[in-house]
Specification:
Elements: E1 12-18, E2 27-33, H1 51-64, E3 67-73, H2 75-81, H3 83-96, E4 104-108, E5 120-123, H4 131-152, H5 160-163, H6 169-178
Parallel strand pairs: 1-4, 4-5
Antiparallel strand pairs: 1-2, 2-3
Length: 199
Amino acid sequence: MLKLKFQDKLIEAGTDEAGRGCLSGPVVAAAVILPKKFKHPLLNDSKQLTEKQRIILRPFIEQYALSWSVSYVFQEKIDEINILQSSILAMHKSIDSLDISPEFIIVDGNKFNNYKDIPHETIVKGDAKYMSIAAASVLAKTYRDDYMEKIHLEFPKYNWKQNKGYPTKQHREAIREFGITQYHRKSFRLLPEQLKLDL
């Protein structure tokens, strides 16, 4: 059973990201502030949900959250500052864009940089424990999937519509055969034998 909040006294935002382990595309983060009586029977960590369930949840979260926002950090920035810092930057950007300023932030995972002077708590597997993080995970995942489906039309050979940029066998085969695109993260190990190839 997901809990609504980590603490009760302050306005609390939950934040999470999607796409950290991908070879292409942005890392996408969302931040969500939920009302006191929020609930939905499907809400869970987005990785536990089917695509259909996430699609049902997204408009519900957007309608009933007190505030929500989604932010993107693209592959050029990921290559410049690394994926961990890019994930944290995306979460900071999504908190920046909330209509309501949170007084406390709960973060999925165990790494976060201080945001302004707002206290925060990192929670491992937070998206399976707290509703606002779970809601953020659903938004981050669905918005990222939409983006990958859009750029799939430009480069159908990589099948991003299906693999969403994750390192599937098929995605790696396409990189081997066709090389990389401007959407690939050049700082990532795109192929297992990359160290031996003269790229």
